[in-house]
Amino acid sequence: MMTANEIRDSFKKFFESKQHAIVPSAPMVIKDDPTLMFTNAGMNQWKDIILGTRDPEPRRRADTQKCLRVSGKHNDLEEVGHDTYHHTMFEMLGNWSFGDYFKEGAIDMAWEYLVDVLKLNPKDLYVTVFEGDPKEGLERDDEAAGYWLKHVPADHIINGNKHDNFWEMGDTGPCGPCSEIHVDSRTEEEKKNGPTGRELVNQDHPQVIEIWNLVFMQYNRKADGSLEKLSMNVIDTGMGFERLVRMLQGKHSNYDTDIFQPIIKAEQDITGLKYFTFEEEANSQEPIAKSQEDINVAMRVCADHLRAVSFSIADGQLPSNAKAGYVIRRILRRAVRYAYTFLGQKDGFLYKLVPTLVHEMGDAFPELKAQQQLITKVIKEEEDSFLRTLDKGIGMLNDAMDKMKAESKTELDGVQAFRLFDTYGFPLDLTELICRENGFTVNEEQFNVEMQKQKERARNAAAVENSDWVTVATTPSDSSEGIEQQFVGYDYTEYNCHILRYRKVTQKKNEFYELVLDATPFYGEMGGQVGDAGVLCNEAETIEIIDTKRENNQSVHIVKQLPKDPTAEFMACVDTDKRNASAANHTATHLLDYALKQILGDHVEQKGSFVSPDTLRFDFSHFEKVTDEQLREVERMVNDMIRQDIHIDEHRDVPFEEAKKLGAIALFGEKYGDKVRVVRFGPSCEFCGGIHASSTGRIGFFKILSESSVAAGIRRIEAKTGKECEELLYQLEDTLKAVKSFFNNAKDLQGVIRKYIDEHDAMKKEIEGFQAQAVERAAQKLVETARDVKGVKVITAVLPMAPAAAKDLAFKVRAAVEGSLLCVIGSHDNNKPQLSIMMSDDMVCDHSLNAGQMVREAAKLIQGGGGGQPHFAQAGGKNVDGLSAAVDKVIELAQL
Ligand code: ATP
Ligand code: MG
Predict the structure, then answer these.
(1) Is residue 238 within 6 Å of ligand 1 at its C-beta?
(2) Predicted pLDDT of residue 11
């Protein structure tokens, strides 16, 4: 039996033998595409090629791509764990042809691989073809059906509708008809007694499932819904690796293969619970109990989600409370919930499975191995913090249920259930489960209403509307390598250009335009470096470019208004002050990265970077605080490299592998093309597409402002360079000058300030001593004035005194008086009245008096309020003139 790793290799080998270039997987987390957060199919990384904005060579490629289907158009999250063939993260094996072979080649190769190489039984294979759609003006894909007939009998070819057999990446973008290959993996007995495989295709039968989809990309879906033909035909295929492995290993569940079994074994060892494989379930004498089924689902959920979360972290996406980070956090929390509820795991659990995952997959995906420590730490911290929230939520739910019991209610209202969901991450099913166990139900309808309201709020906040592109001109056909736009920003800051196309974008009622130029010196925001600003001008007009972003490998210029004549020739001019400042900060970031690795160690990995004209921010993996001494060392090393004025050594269009040989540092989770740019400043050598200073001397000076923690295992450094440092120095100098002048420009400033502080402390102590003595004397005097009323010593006084001293005084009086006491002190300080009541304990017990109640009543006379304990209470107020009346009122209330 082939192992999973052998099967992965055989796929690559087969397509290599068919002249395909074997390419690496793109990162699963997408950083620079506003339309997609995660890679959901193998073709995502080739979107630019398919749309004609990137060089298509080599035209035949194959790979295994890490995919995640948890948001947007492809979202399988809710199925995962409940069925046995959908995952959140999975590997998609794919082969591509960009204007090379088309339908016939793709169909023949797929068949050859499955039947001749892997020896799947043709009797078990069914294929689908697109039946056509009159509304779109599309006919049945007779062409594909014809090629299939070479391999399978007609009754193994099934027509499919637009939903199943017309593949679209998203609401807009490349699309086309497709043919899927389905496998009937039922047992021989089931096949004999049940319906035919043909009848079960696309019917959600867990043993008759799609394994490979061959997409024949011919169209581009535009924002207005219409289809436009692509300039070349593209083959895009995707085969679920885990499903293929299951078929070849003769299993009936993806989780019974050697991809998942080691993880499930670790889960069993840790929990002491048993997982039932498909066979064990089928051969079991008794039906599987519901509680055992819950355990099975939970173990599948955890095994699956462990992969999704670990790979995301390795790709640089940490769990957080926004965007992609939030999606990852939700996946992790879903796993924690299942482990908590069904596997009895009240403490962190998933992080304990990381070693097994790394052991199994670390060879095929070295990013896992290299970052095992970080992955473990991040998962554990997330688990711990969510388990704390879970506890709090359960506490809140218990309170709600107690209240319902007291009010004889049986239904939890939906608003409360929604609050649990919103603030504690309690999904409805968990709330329902806990309620059910306690004999309550949940108002689901109300919950859904709240949910809907929130979705609408989110939609309104985020809505961005893009109109279709309006073409102004097309690129001359001799432009290099079929690339639409020429980027000249590494060499120029001004360049002659034409507008190729523009579109209108509406966001929260704001309107602006996006322009694509045929040639541009403008750098579009990427890799943490902000985009260029500047102008587009000619003799007739000047248009301000407020920002530049990057989309599909091109700079997209953002302007508030369109030029009057978009077809005219323009000069595109970058604002060089800003550009030079951010270039210097970017170069400083490289030097910082280098210095951190030298001083802290090789475990330092870049985890985020932001570079703008006035600041730089650098996030990196490191497991403890960087000490002040280490920060100084880093600064000294960077500034030393600045003074050496090292010139940039830049290599463009270097093949990826060659760049690695140059010793360039590639980032995990970054998407690189076949050819990359390498930027070297002396010993610092990185893969980088950014704009840099021509030599390190241009940075001027480097200074770290702060070092802090941003997440488990991730530190952040903020720093400034050049002119910004100059300003910083002036501020410090001014502050120091001012401080010196307070101390008569003393030479030994630190010594003088130290002396002042010591003197101040001594004086403070002395004053406190005097005050205590004064209160002591006042207490003695007061006690002497005590009147005896029916055996109770009654003391009243109105004095100037601070509130704290009045309290002190009251307690001193109580300590000095034996027997029953009622002491009422009216004090005032800065025109603010204060009323204090102190009694002996027997006054509370025997006379049923309560100082708190009395003070509230009497404080009305000083226009105030307060409270306290039964034997001592205080109230403040606004009206000093009412103070003696308030004191009398207390005595009256006591009714002695
Ligand atoms: P299904 O109908 O089974 O959800 P799909 O139509 O969504 O599949 P495609 O988008 O065509 O699948 O993806 C190509 C291949 O990727 C599928 O044939 C399948 O083998 C695999 N695949 C798709 N979704 C998943 C998933 N969530 N987990 C594992 N494999 C998947
Ligand atoms: Mg699907």
Answers:
(1) yes
(2) 98
Query: For the residues 16-45, what does the mean pLDDT come to?
Result: 90
Between CA 336 and CA 329 the distance in angstroms is 10
Alpha-carbon distance values, 738 to 730, 733, 753, 757 (Å): 12, 9, 13, 18
CB 817 within 8 A of CB 793: yes
142: tokens are 């007779």
> pLDDT for 217-263, tens place per residue?
999 888 888 998 888 999 999 999 999 999 999 999 999 999 999 99
Mean pLDDT of the chain: 92
SS (H, E, C) 378-440: HHHHHHHHHHHHHHHHHHHHHHHHHHHHHCCCCEECHHHHHHHHHHHCCCHHHHHHHHHHCCC
Atom of ligand 1 nearest to the CA of 254: 29
Six-digit token pair at 502? Answer: 């523009």
Best mutation site among 63, 120, 213, 244 for ligand 1 pocket (most ligand atoms within 8 Å of CB)? 213
Please indicate whether residue 686, judged by its CB atom, sits closer than 6 Å to ligand 1: no
> Could you read off the pLDDT of 442-489 as tens digits, one per residue?
999 999 999 998 888 877 766 677 788 888 887 654 444 446 789 999
Which residues are bridge partners to 158 per DSSP? Answer: 128
CA angle 328, 332, 335 (to 5 degrees): 145
| Alpha carbon of residue 574 to chain centroid | 33
Q: What is the mean pLDDT of residues 634-648?
A: 98
Q: Name the residue among 112, 121, 142, 125 with its Cα closest to residue 210.
A: 125
Q: Which pTM value belongs to this model? A: 0.72
What residues contact 260, with CB distance under 8 A and at least 6 apart? Answer: 242, 254, 300, 303, 304
Task: Answer whether 58's CB lies under 8 Å from 19's CB.
Answer: no
For 703-716, give one letter per residue: b (16+ CB within 10 A) or e.
bbeebeeebbbbbb
HEC secondary structure over 605-617: CEEEEEECCCCEE
87 lines ligand 1 (CB under 6 A): yes
- Cα(174)–Cα(43) distance, integer angstroms: 10
Half-sphere exposure of residue 832: CA atoms within 13 angstroms, side-chain side:
11
Q: Which token pair is 11? A: 């796929």
Q: What is the pLDDT, as a whole number, of residue 461?
A: 67
Q: Which of 13-22, 122-131, 576-585, 862-871 has the lowest mean pLDDT?
A: 862-871
Report yes or no: 157 and 176 within 8 Å, Cβ to Cβ: no
| Residue 256, SS3 per DSSP | helix
Tokens of 437: 């166990």
Q: Which amino acid is at 423?
A: T
The letter for the amino acid at 739 is V
Is 92 close to ligand 1, i.e. is its CB under 6 Å away?
yes
Q: What is the mean pLDDT of residues 769-781?
A: 90
**82, 163, 210: residue to mutate for ligand 1 pocket, most atoms within 8 A of CB:** 210
Mean pLDDT of 124-133: 96
d(C-alpha 306, C-alpha 302), whole Å: 6
Q: Residue 648: which of 598, 694, 594, 604 has the closest Cα?
A: 694
- Using DSSP bridges, classify how beta strands 872-876 and 832-839 pair: parallel, antiparallel or unpaired: antiparallel
Tell how far the Cα of 76 is from the centroid of ligand 2, in angstroms.
Answer: 7
